[in-house]
Amino acid sequence: MNLEQRIKAFIKLGDFIRQFTNNIPQKKENIPFNDLFFDGFKHQLKIAQEQNKWFNTDNLTFALNGWAESLTENNINTWLKPYTFNSNPAKRVAIIMAGNIPLVGFHDFLSVLITGHEVIVKQSSNDKHLLPFLAKYLEYIEPEFKSKILFVDGKLDQFDAVIATGSDNTARYFEYYFKDKPAIIRKNRNSVAVLTGNETTEDLEGLADDIFRYYGLGCRNVSKLYVPKQYDFQNFFQAMYKWKDVINDHKYANNYDYNKAVYLMSEFDMLENGFLMIKEDPSFSSPIATLFYEYYNDVNSLKNELISKKSKIQCIVSKDFTEHEIVFGNTQSPKLWDYADNVDTVAFLLKI
């Protein structure tokens, strides 16, 4: 199976996924094997919601829309253009996936297969229904994938390289366990936003999406603000109002009530608007329904501080602050070439 075949297969997978990018799926004509797979994937989406209450319809739809937009001929070719593909023998690459947001491990899955390797997938129990079904569809589209995709529940065995995502604690275990294998080990990361007080309403409403999408569970979600001294949070809270209905989700509401009670009993200073709390705190990782913030006095000093802590930061959301900043509202819409932790997965896979 050559690169062109692999690309065409994923383009067709994108066409299939595109039917599920609205809250009510729309079955389309001329989608291969649609009669066999369309209703089945609807059922898998239903099961995914039942098994993980964070995976509501809006979040599943948003995730699928992102992949439908990415898996086009133009985007895939743009992504792969800088690389030189060789005819080296295929290796077996194990992927240990997180499960914090829907299909969070799909980019690794795509990268392994598009580079011609075989993939062994160990999924999180929080997100185990969608990818196997999409993989089965991929095997129907391109039967040569059948011998290249394996899902496992138990111990990983007989692999040549590994891509593993987990917490800081599990990463230490991964680093020890996989010390003799080529590996990409991903740890805890969070995203931050740098505000100046000159942001437009549109900027701040985009920031609201960066904060609340997926309930803030993703590493690309903003969990920490840097604001200038004397910053007035009034416009910020007004912009957050577009996400007010998030409090109607009982899991989110339970987290909000619990964390609020903890803060009040601990007599922590915090501001809140009925569905979001903000608390001054030097940490990056804030609890659900909470956003940390920190004041800064000097822009250059803040830049140096964030550079020194880059191993903890996935994205910086800002306007005219730093070279690799993310535009407000775009953290959860990465391109294929926006690699997690800035580690080029394809380059890694082409060298093993």
UniProtKB/TrEMBL annotation:
<protein>
    <submittedName>
        <fullName>Acyl-CoA reductase</fullName>
    </submittedName>
</protein>
<dbReference type="Pfam" id="PF05893">
    <property type="entry name" value="LuxC"/>
</dbReference>
<dbReference type="InterPro" id="IPR016161">
    <property type="entry name" value="Ald_DH/histidinol_DH"/>
</dbReference>
<dbReference type="GO" id="GO:0003995">
    <property type="term" value="F:acyl-CoA dehydrogenase activity"/>
</dbReference>
<dbReference type="InterPro" id="IPR008670">
    <property type="entry name" value="CoA_reduct_LuxC"/>
</dbReference>
<keyword id="KW-0521">NADP</keyword>
<dbReference type="GO" id="GO:0008218">
    <property type="term" value="P:bioluminescence"/>
</dbReference>
